[in-house]
Amino acid sequence: MSGPFAEGYRTMIRTSAAGRMGTPAEVATTAAFLLGPESAFITGSDLLMDCGVIAAMRAGQL
Question: What is the number of structural domains in the chain?
């Protein structure tokens, strides 16, 4: 990973619960769920796919 924000991304990855980035397949699975009948009762919600990075930021760990 390189570029001006690389170190920030590495820090977020280290702080996340999984300690890694999500895969395209994981994002696709979530999108398929939201587009499918299993999510018919979900309305007006945000689904964070960040492996706890926001929670870590709010806890002062990032």
Answer: 1
